[in-house]
Design a protein that fits this description.
alpha+beta, Thiol Ester Dehydrase, Chain A, 2 domains, two-stranded antiparallel sheet, 5 helices, 7 strands, elongated
Length: about 190
């Protein structure tokens, strides 16, 4: 038996008390499905989303992603070379940092996205090293319904990558296309 979808705030029992977990919809008796992403109507300008879990950067992350992106700069992969730099250790490639922070945001901000439309104003504001733990937060900065694609809307966010120490190491702006609630693909796909 499948229950009607519940709001993100959980489900309510007959007496009005909260009966289900927040961020899930009830799909059967004592059965809940995790919600992924937002529809256009659910994103409000000014809302800030804190993305979790964080991610501790490993040497493997840095070397593997540097090689996958063909960024073989010794500044990222050669500890002996880096011992003579001001950092005295390899810097995590900015491509790695951008990928990890951007990835952290995808599940929530664009979990229902139809397309990523663009990245702007990418700024690297501090160094990242192996062992640093990164978190991300995104503020919805704008939204509008698409003029050319009925049932879809364009949403813009400003995202910050933040070390566990509170230091901001990366900022960027991003726009993406999401469906309106009535055009969401999630129900048909079993989400």
């Amino acid at each position: 038996m499948t229950a009607a979808p519940a709001e993100r705030t959980g489900t309510a029992s007959a007496d009005g008390e909260h009966a289900g977990p927040v961020g899930y919809r009830q799909v059967g008796e004592n059965r809940f499905r995790e919600l992924v992403g937002f529809c256009y109507e659910e994103l409000t300008v000014g809302v800030v989303i804190e993305h979790r879990p964080g991610r501790t950067i490993t040497a493997m992350d840095n070397v593997l992603m540097s090689m996958l992106s063909m960024n073989a700069s010794p500044l990222h992969i050669d500890a002996a070379y880096c011992a003579g730099t001001e950092w005295q250790q390899p810097l995590v490639s900015s491509l790695v940092t951008l990928s990890i922070v951007g990835g952290m945001t995808a599940r929530s901000t664009s979990g229902q996205a139809i397309a990523n439309l663009g990245w702007d104003r990418i700024r690297l504001t501090g160094p990242v090293f192996v062992g640093d733990t990164l978190y991300a937060e995104s503020e919805v900065t704008g939204k509008r319904l698409s003029a050319s694609r009925p049932g879809e809307g364009i949403v813009s966010c400003r995202t910050a990558g933040i070390k566990s120490t509170g230091e901001v190491v990366l900022t960027f702006e991003r726009s993406f296309l999401v469906p309106t609630r009535d055009r969401s693909r999630h129900p048909a796909a079993g989400y």
